[in-house]
Design brief:
66% helix; 2 domains; single chain; mainly alpha; 0% strand; globular
């Protein structure tokens, strides 16, 4: 069995360089295979958190098609740790979810094995920001499409693409503040729907001033719904959430209004304590 100490794995991020620095271009295929085996050893030894941190570090440095899967696994693991600390999950449930997370980690490691390492590119934050700008411009041009169904479908697809790039580089949003376009707002909302986080309400609040598009309002409403259902709201966020939802109601069409009211009802249910 491969000795993980050979690669100087430690809980200190600074010591992960033996696996993540310049991966995968410096080492040969055999060496890279051994590095992936180290990740498997960590999981077998019950050090899933260390394996996740290493995978996140790799994801932060290189453009990978499955970066989102790594982030989702990390989010699940953090939620599981929080539930265990709160004492709201049984040992059986904890072990079952941890086993599921470990299976996901092994699946990601399997994807690393399948990569054509010669084609992997180092992540360029500048390139990601430019890509988001291009998608945002494309989103704004969707309003020229006369057919409603085609227009909404195109906006939805572009918003998903913007979300994928935001997932790759979360700080990209800072490049578009304080005036954020509908395309960026929708992309952010899609990211929140996929990977809700504590503090996301701050992003929604700071970026959703006066919105006129029902499509954009719908995206924001769905993002708030995910924050409510996943209980990613902090103490004091409920009232702020209500204010945002009330603002979204202005000039909204009937389907959107019903959706907003549904989210309000879910929020009330959660705040009442019945949703625990």
């Amino acid at each position: 069995m491969t000795d993980p100490n050979r690669f100087c794995i430690s809980k200190e991020p600074a010591l992960w360089g033996s696996i993540t620095d310049n991966w995968p271009h410096v080492a040969g295929k055999q060496e890279n295979h051994m590095k992936k085996e180290v990740l498997k050893v960590l999981i077998l030894k019950g050090k899933s958190e260390e394996a996740i941190k290493i995978l996140l570090d790799i994801s932060n440095k290189f453009l990978l098609s499955f970066s989102k899967e790594i982030i989702l696994i990390s989010s699940r693991y953090n939620a599981l740790k929080a539930d265990k600390m709160k004492g709201v999950i049984s040992n059986r449930e904890y072990k079952s979810e941890l086993n599921s997370i470990n299976e996901g980690l092994l699946g990601v490691i399997g994807l690393l094995d399948q990569l054509d390492e010669s084609k992997i590119k180092a992540k360029s934050n500048f390139d990601l920001i430019e890509k988001i700008r291009e998608l945002d411009e494309k989103f704004s041009r969707c309003d020229d499409i006369e057919a409603t169904t085609s227009r909404l479908r195109m906006k939805n697809e572009i918003a998903k693409s913007i979300s994928e790039n935001i997932i790759q580089y979360p700080d990209a949003l800072k490049e578009f503040l304080p005036l954020i376009s509908d395309g960026i707002i929708c992309g952010l909302s899609k990211r929140i729907q996929e990977i809700p986080k504590f503090g996301d309400l701050d992003l929604i609040e700071s970026s959703t001033g006066e919105i006129n598009s029902n499509f954009t309002k719908g995206c924001v409403t769905n993002a708030i719904a995910e924050l409510v259902y996943s209980q990613k709201l902090r103490i004091g966020d409920a009232e702020r959430t209500r204010k945002i939802l009330n603002a979204l109601k202005r000039n909204s069409d009937v389907p959107l209004m019903k959706n907003i009211e549904r989210v309000e009802a879910a929020l009330d249910y959660l705040v009442s304590g019945k949703g625990k």
